[in-house]
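Aggregate trends can hide what the representation actually does to any particular protein. The sequence in question and its structure tokens are set out directly beneath this paragraph.
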Amino acid sequence: MGPPNGFAMLPWLFMGMGAFSNLLQGKTPNPWIGGIGLLVFNSLYISVVFRAFHKEAREAPSTRWLLVAMTAVTCGLAIGYGGSWLLFFPLLGLAVGSVVRGRRLGPTVLGLSALAGVIAGVRDGWGAVNVAYGTFISGMVTAAILALSETVRELRDTRQELARTAVEKERLRFSRDLHDLLGHTLSVIVVKSEAARRLAPRDMDAAIIQITDIESVGRQALTEIREAVTGYREGSLATELDRARSALTAAGIEPVVRQSGPPLEPQTAALLGWVVREAVTNAIRHSGAAHCEITLEGAPDRVRLTITDDGRGSPVDDAAPTLGGTGLKGLTERLSASGGSLAAGPSSRGGFRVRAELPVDALQEQQREGQPEAEQRAEPAQVE
């Protein structure tokens, strides 16, 4: 049937058929006054209930004045004619319940019910109880149903918005992963291919080693792309450091890797692995450096990763899209989401430096606190 709307409120107007029948049968004194009152009440009712389903119109001051006019007409008809004309009070309760929301609903409906009971008591004696009760129920039930309908509609809109947000996040994740994976892999393949071409005329065995590495890198790239598509890829910092050494050596850049501090949680290591991959790729492609130093320093509360080269000190023009676009910008967003930070720029000693910091995972702290003191002393630390 769909959500309620103004048309769903119109059939209740048949409650006024008794008054309309009295007019046709000539049982109502001053029928012209009664007919005009009936026409005005129905017009006001239709206007109010259609406004009730549009938030701006429902909360407009004009809607409140229409309700005041309906109340005046209802009271006038009920006082003047009584009998079946008293049933306009439940109709007025429907209109009030469809418009009034929040804390004002209860006092408003109670006041209207009391007013209906007093007028009906004067005109109809004990029948006033039914009129007052019908007015109260019609107002409260209508407000409850419409409030529930609005809540369901808001939940449906929220669910759709969450679905759109999830799709956008997944697209962003995939674009970042694909950029980082392909950028690094293709850079390594190009560097090793150049090394193989230089070595082939004078040292075929060394060239074959480089070609074998190219095959291995290509196969690994296929696996990582499949994992990136399914969203299950978890980078390994140790693996990325090994690849960085190999890629830097093949590019003619001397790698220096220093590690200190306790073991890292898998999620922290995965994030830092992405930083190593991106920074080393940029160093190979753009720096023209002779040395590249990778330093990992662990502390009780934070871990810091620094990649420094002695190259040009600032990216060349064709490096700008990588450094200011998907690459380091994407890594900055990832680290920020985990409470960390990333800074990239010229080093004070020349060259280019990328520095990433991440807080120690709370789970890691809990696990270390739960270990016996002897086990903590026996836990080996990573060294260079």
Observations:
- Strands lie at 254-260, 291-298, 302-309, 341-346, 352-359.
- Residues 315-325, 362-384 have pLDDT under 50 and may be disordered.
- The longest helix spans residues 128-199.
